[in-house]
Design goal:
By secondary structure, the protein is mainly alpha-helical. It contains seven helices and no strands. The longest helix is centred in the first third of the chain and has 16 residues.
Length: 113
């Protein structure tokens, strides 16, 4: 598929999210292209600018290269509280996540689970 001349809205949001997590991880585009086994820094750059719509396999490769879940590339914490909660969970240890999960299970109505 040819590269777009103007960014696709969702592709741009995903691309910005990839860039945000990449920079937080201290990686350059070139380093992420290598660690993700994507290979092409140009392709990754086009993704970050919303000019390419990544497929599921590409998102998985990038997530692996960043050491995150594919979910994290599709989470936009500035949009709403639920997505912010998902983002906040990325920094928790497994033990902390289990504490939060137990609290939620205990305190949410059965229909909320």
């Amino acid at each position: 598929m040819p590269r777009r001349l103007a960014p696709d809205k969702l592709a741009l949001e995903v691309g910005q999210r990839i860039r945000e997590i990449r920079i937080a991880a201290g990686l350059t585009i070139e380093e992420l292209a290598k660690t993700s086994k994507l290979g092409s820094k140009g392709h990754l750059s086009n993704m970050e600018r919303g000019l390419v719509r990544p497929n599921i396999q590409t998102l998985k490769l990038i997530a692996n290269g960043l050491g995150v879940l594919p979910l994290d590339l599709m989470t936009f914490p500035k949009k709403d509280a639920r997505q912010k909660l998902v983002e906040m969970s990325r920094s928790l240890s497994a033990k902390q996540l289990n504490v939060v999960l137990r609290w939620l299970v205990k305190n949410l109505p059965a229909t909320g689970r």
